[in-house]
Amino acid sequence: MHIRKVLIANRGEIALRVHRACQEMGIQTVAVHSTADNTAMHVRLADESVCIGPPPARDSYLNMAAIISAAAITGADAIHPGYGFLSENASFAEMVEAHGLAFIGPRPEHIRMMGDKIAAKDAMRRLGVPLVPGSMGALESLDEARAVADEIKYPVLIKAAAGGGGRGMKVARSAEELEEAWRVARTEAKAAFGDDSVYMEKYLDRPRHIELQVLADTHGNVVHFGERDCSLQRRHQKLVEEAGSPVLSAEERDKLGANVTRALKELGYRNAGTLEFLWQDGQFAFIEMNTRLQVEHPVTEMVCGVDLVKEQVRIAAGEPLGYGQDEIRFNGHAIECRITAEDPETFAPSPGRVNMYHAPGGLGVRVDSALYSGYVVPPHYDSLVAKLVVHGGTRAEAIARLRRALAEMVVSGIRTTLPLHQQIVADPEFQAGDYTIHWLERFVARMRADG
Prior knowledge:
This protein is an alpha+beta fold. The chain folds into 3 domains: 100 residues, Rossmann fold; 70 residues, ATP-grasp fold, A domain (Dna Ligase, domain 1); 243 residues, ATP-grasp fold, B domain (D-amino Acid Aminotransferase, Chain A, domain 1). The chain is built from 15 helices and 20 strands. The radius of gyration is 21 Å and the shape is globular.
């Protein structure tokens, strides 16, 4: 299939990111947008734009019929969903393909499988990928939860089967805490996802969050592009990501990569994906798979010298990867800071007009952002406004470059998390790579206590 025009079913920096890749490939782009995004950068730069509804996402960026209609009106060949919104909606992927369009992403059946955390774990168990000890499926009753907890030992984690982003997730450190965790997790899961199914995992007390980036074409070729360490999280939301991990050896990466690529080849997976693991004491445990491009994909691109979006488009067009695992090189170290429109102390949202915007530059510095001076950050969507990414020959060089770039970056008129990132990067424990997924919560609490 020859792709000539891509409709980008997203907004903000990721819509701009996809647009830029398509432009370099000689592919025209169509921006869809809500009325709140009339003046957004991706709308200004795309070859065509179509307004698909009012500000609420459910009436615009989640409006499948409006997006398909926009593709038909503009004569698009393919749809790239970005991340968030409809990117992991199997019904949307099916609708796109039913209308003769290429979906620049995985097959609908794999999106559906991996969107159900229990089904995903079952698939990975069958394919020989290591898992966190826990229930074999959804827990049918509190009594069953008690029995599983007794078997795998406390502390345990109750998680929503259809969940993500930390919602429907509760820790029970003892039998006395289990009933409350069970009740709250199911209530949150029902409210957030319309499904109160939950399962249980062993709660690890000092793990790292390690994920592996993969690409698979339609010709049976599967490769990985190494790991990212995403352990710096607040309320299960990532703030800083690194490629590679400060704690992982090349041997561990190669062993995990070989296992994962073999499993995905057997599964018949297509396009980009990221498998997420907890790592502790040299052991990996699969937790979920994201069947889309990740927010943090730029750190992988910086280390591997590959444009993952262009690769996604080529795969959707039916092209083979054209290279094998032994041709992928890992060069140096990259770090990404997610800059959000939030108060750096309270994390309260801070939408509004950007009076001045200045992006840092220099060797090894990349900023993925749709900001510009005078732009009004709307209150209706995710607070991410920029991703500051640096690359260095070593981790120490990348950190030095990041400190310099953070000091150069200016976003005025709204509050952002820039000051928090400066504090994180200056911390000796971060500089030593000595952190787990619980580190940032304690760091933020310490900063607040110090005043």
